UniProtKB/TrEMBL annotation, chains A, B:
This is Beta-hexosaminidase. The keyword Hydrolase applies. Keywords: Glycoprotein, Glycosidase, Hydrolase, Signal. It comes from Rhodofomes roseus. It holds the Pfam family Glyco_hydro_20.
Length: 552, 552
């Protein structure tokens, strides 16, 4: 019995540690060394390769020689020497596009609408030192192949080597939307933190940065024509995202195969707009805030007011111009009706136009969505917009389900496309206690902490009929930052957010027991790249796959 | 009503932000500037001041001019300019000892037995520019006064200023043991991380570093004469604490008023000793581990064996020589009896000597404690040693209560002195999910997350009679590091561990509502010193004391 286990153990330790797991993977157990002269070449068939493909190649080459990741076994690779010291050297990797593929930049491919995204690739790594290859039908596919290729390599005593060649991978994501949401309004994050996060997202093939850029507490986005919002609403003149910052972030993301879907949350979560436009805001700083708002400070846009509605629509026109993505989110969560019930101006606007609350809200959202449509954008909203207010939005609207994964079915039944963002699986901030003051024993509303294991068990298609599956676009983990800032950004996200990255790339049904050694591997690789990804277990366990499992 | 609130608000914003709160504090609302030539002098009455007092002064001077902490109000101090621009300059602070005080180093004072520690001080800061002063009866008291003095100052546009002079503080800690426990065995922490943690502990007057240095997963401590333990038991030759490292850490701690109480956990939590002494370990790597151990890998010292018992006692003699503290912990938690029941060698040892399990365990612990006593040390143990095994230990033994604060009374009733370390209040690692593999929906055994607020409500004297109060030595928050490493050390500890620091310095009964602005302040000061202390709230709230309270 023990000897069988030893055999299995040894076999297991040679399995590659790719994350997310490719759809089809065939691998051997032959070692291969990376030549010191290793080169990545673009096939002559790709005429005029885009600059961001050259840049991606350059980053991959750098990662190959600087990751310096020791393999996660006792000895960190010392035991591999006898295996690799006679191995062949790989001197070259060639990138090719299938004949007839159009040649766009990675950025342009990443920013395509969800239904047009093409991330498939084929990766072949022979054992004998002949050329490795990645083929795809888009530059974005080539990028995904490069990312996979980077994860094959370990370092020991100056030798860069793989243990599991020959390798043949045919890969394609299960879902076109694999995101991460970051709130930069409750607390501010310097651009450098966002860039590092984008790099890490790219490492696990997350392709959407859902940027919750403003909220009731601060408005850091500088919008041409609306500069007063950040001038009065940013935490400080240094804690802003200028148009240049946005352009740089969007471009940095695009080059890494990541689209940026910005959210300017409306009409709720807008108190801070009262700093520059107090007349736009109902129940502005009203007390007790808990009667008027989900969290302090109170204040929501007077959506029933024609001036506010027009201003909001024009604001989204301006926002749309800053972000090349095909999608922009207008938010729409947690509208507090009591605030509007108590607001004389809103009641006057409703009465004078003879509209109900829902009718006026419909008009408002149609205004902002109309502006987005005119700018060529698809709108996204939080689930309440379609479940609570029956707004009859355009059928192409994307709906983020956050309150509970139990709500997905209702949204899908209405015919909308869904982005999974359920707090009960995917909220990275849950479980760290109550942040509102004056509550000695309070815990977080969305307790408990959402573990990577639990997120990993998520089934995107639960409760749906098979003809509804195509309405699921993918999903994301989310970080609301009431208790986060630059000092705990990495540890709270990584490696946990890799869980949904694999669910939505590889598809549901993965097994946490089998996944853990691979997740350790990618987490340690993140650390090698300067990301403060946390340990999931004692190092003793990380170096001994399965030995810390409950049933070992 | 609103105007009253505004008045209160303004008054509140001038309250100093000291953490922990001094026992007696009188302050005004006059601003004072720090002179660019500010100097700290030692009274001529202190003959031959120790070097670590000079060093402490030097650190304080550096902090005063480099903390650069903007005050936590909207504008971060811009509104203070009109207040401080006509303020007097403070040019000097004098340190004095009361006549007749002996002059020892800070380090020597910090390392004294609990009952001999003297940390009291008086701090006077006038408003008019005359000399400020700290007086005490020990150099350790002077250090505590310097630490308080540092927290008075803010920076705006190049000016260093205080807002709440004149200040008169008479201060003394409520408890002599105010600790922080760090486990460096589940995951390793470089010396630099420990030093940074010691600096931060000192900032909130934590005076005891309880170093859980070894466990079943690794043995990083190099002990002269026992080098095989770390040679075979450290995670790598680099992941060790050499005698020089220990000496440096102990000395660094001492200079900051911190004693180091090391724990070498025995006889449980010792599997890794099997790497060098397999014959010493019962149920070594036995499977299923869950039957033999609280966590993998299984293995416990064969305490009933005379060779093992003698070896353990001598080991503690060697450990005692490395650590100048008056206290050393021999551990003693989570002994798994099934492991010994199944261990033929242990059963043989028990039978051949005619001893029961408890008798043999008593002999073993008396051996290690005897070695410590011979080395002049007071032993500390986890609670099971006195509650579960009735070992009749020496009455001076310190008992750390970790399983539940409900167990304190039983330990005190036995006459032992207690160090509070209750998992239900003070475990910093709780609530982050199950780390054992193969458990998709598992949460942490000590859920939920222990918030700073909850730790802050802890009553050290609960359920005790007044004549038992003197048996409470203090307490600590604790970090077990199954899911922690250098990458999340700071965020998981800070500012939460400041909660117990205040409970055990200032005494119980503090109010979380009143404490929060001060805790923000010390957390932001930690950040200014390069510590990754996390935000407790959105910055909007941190800049507006009380406005994010539940009842605002």
């Amino acid at each position: 019995m023990m000897s069988l286990w030893l055999v299995l153990s040894a076999a297991v330790s040679l399995v590659g540690a790719l994350w997310p797991l490719p759809q089809n993977l065939t691998q051997g157990n032959t070692a291969l060394r990376l030549s010191g002269n290793f080169d990545i070449t673009i096939s002559p068939g790709i005429s005029e390769p885009p600059q961001d493909l050259y840049d991606a190649i350059s980053r991959t080459r750098s990662h190959l020689f600087t990751d310096d990741l020791g393999r996660l076994v006792v000895g960190r690779g010392a035991g591999d020497v006898s295996t690799f010291e006679t191995a062949a050297y790989l001197s070259s990797l060639t990138l090719s596009l299938e004949p007839g593929s159009s040649v766009l930049s990675i950025t342009a491919e990443a920013q395509k609408p969800l239904e047009e995204r093409d991330e498939a690739y084929t990766l072949t790594v022979p054992s004998n030192g002949s050329v490795a290859s990645i083929t795809a039908t888009s530059t974005l596919g080539l990028l995904r192949g490069l990312t996979t290729f980077e994860q094959l390599w370990y370092e020991y005593d100056g030798t860069i080597y793989a243990v599991n060649t020959p390798i043949q991978i045919e890969d394609v994501p299960a879902y076109p939307y694999r995101g991460l949401m970051l709130d930069t309004a409750r607390n501010y994050f310097p651009v450098s933190d966002i860039l590092r996060t984008l790099d890490t997202m790219s490492l696990v093939k997350i392709n959407e940065f859902n940027w919750h850029i403003s909220d009731s507490q601060s408005f850091p986005l500088q919008i041409p024509g609306y500069m007063e919002l950040s001038e009065y609403g940013a935490y400080s003149p240094q804690m802003i995202y200028s148009p240049n910052d946005v352009e740089y972030i969007v471009s940095y993301a695009g080059a890494r195969g990541i689209d940026v879907m910005v959210e300017v949350d409306t009409p709720g979560h807008t108190s801070i707009i009262g700093e520059s436009h107090p007349e736009f805001i109902a129940c502005y700083l009203a007390r007790p805030w808990a009667s008027y708002a989900g969290e302090p400070p109170a204040g929501q846009l007077r959506f029933a007011n024609a001036t506010v509605a027009n201003w909001s629509a024009e604001l989204f026109t301006a926002v749309a111009q800053m972000f090349p993505s095909s999608m922009v989110s207008t938010g729409g969560d947690e509208i507090q009706t009591y605030c509007y019930d108590m607001d004389e101006e809103t009641q006057y606007d409703l009465n004078s136009t003879g509209r109900t609350f829902n009718e006026a809200l419909t008009d408002y959202v149609r205004g902002t969505h109309g502006a987005l449509a005119a700018a060529g954008k698809t709108p996204a909203v939080w689930e309440e917009m379609v479940l609570d207010y029956n707004l009859s939005l355009s059928s192409d609207t994307l709906v983020l389900v956050w309150i509970s994964s139990d709500d997905v079915k209702a949204v899908v039944d209405q015919g909308f496309r869904v982005i999974h963002a359920a707090s009960n699986y995917f909220y990275l901030d849950c479980g760290a206690g109550e942040w509102v003051g004056g509550d000695p024993t309070g815990n977080s509303w969305c307790d408990p902490f959402k573990t990577w294991q639990y997120a990993y068990t998520f089934d995107p298609l639960a409760n749906l009929t098979s003809d509804q599956y195509s309405q699921i676009m993918g999903g994301q983990q989310l970080l609301w930052t009431e208790q986060s800032g630059p000092d705990n950004l990495d540890p709270i996200i990584w490696p946990r957010a890799a869980a949904s990255a694999e669910v939505f790339w590889s598809g549901a049904g993965g097994n946490v027991t089998a996944a853990l050694p691979r997740l350790h591997d990618v987490s340690f690789r993140m650390q090698q790249r300067g990301v403060r990804s946390i340990p999931l277990q004692p190092l003793w366990c990380a170096l001994r796959p399965y030995e810390c499992d409950l049933d070992w």
